[in-house]
Amino acid sequence: MRRPGLWSLCLTLFGLALMVALGIWQLQRMAWKAGLIAETQAGMAAPPVSLDLYLDNLAALNYRAVRLRGQFLHDREAYVGPRVHQGRAGLHVLTPLRLADGATILINRGWIPKDRRDPASRASGQVPGPVTIRGILRSRLAQGAWTPDYDSHADLWFWYDVAGIAKARGLELMTAVVQADGAANPGGLPIGGVAQPMLHNDHLQYAITWFSLAGILIVIFLLAHRRGRDHP
Asked: Is 47 part of any domain?
């Protein structure tokens, strides 16, 4: 009877261990994502709280519905992109909101098409005076591993880089962003509510995929060496 070769056995065991490890990791990610989704849904469903009560503890409001009142600094708005809405390419508008106590926070007011980036092209949406904003607060902000840095030539950000935006716009900003709800803006732009969190938990199917591949590898290994045993 032909015995499995050492290299084929080692490679099979290595591949099997890797696939099983990835499957287990996906199960762990599934549990983490389920908790995050539960936290997000609970925060979004809760009645909005006044941001003034939590200025010293914004971390407690991550994914929480909030309301705040202040005045937009339209001349300091920034842009995150590219962002797609209903199949059209565009940007999200981040506008600083100055609160009554002087603190300033970024508001993701929503989506605009690329050809309406110039504020003059949507002047009616540049609301003057005090405004009340409702939305979801994001206080845990991190750049993804593959997310580009700020493009200074295009003056475009690719994530909520609050520190970078503060430096570029000459502001002191709270380390958080409020994603405005779908309330209509004058003139129709920006289109609010498009930045609301929409989390999906697909990790179970990823785990099943890895475990299935591990099973297929075992079957291939056994068949290959059975054939070798039957045909010395």
From this structure: no
